[in-house]
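Notes from hallway chat w/ T.B., transcribed later so I don't forget. T.B. wanted the structure written out for a chain they're using in a teaching module, and asked if we could keep both sequence and structure tokens in one place. Agreed to drop them here.
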Amino acid sequence: MYLVVIGWMYVVLMMSVAEATNSTGSILGAIVTFFLYGLVPVALVVYLMGTPHRRKAIKAREAAEQAEREAAAASTAPKESAASADPDAGGHAPGAAEAGSVAPVRKEP
């Protein structure tokens, strides 16, 4: 793909030189020719042709990040035992409500 790009840029450069050195041509015309026939279309084509490669790179990066997150989660996750699988078998005392912190439920007068 880059061989075609290099070839086309050479052709456009020669067109610009011919425009600049022609007796009826101008430097401004050569610059416009170089940009409008050369840089802008080639940049667009290279960008569009590189889209599949960018998609593959993004998917590979996302897969690597996902694998890294899963490995980190597996290494930091506590090992589950049979005792901790049951409710209230964690070995911690149950919490009690503090006095005065919960408003009583009653009917409106």
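Follow-up for T.B.: Residues 18 and 80 are 78 Å apart (CA to CA). Might be a good example for the class.
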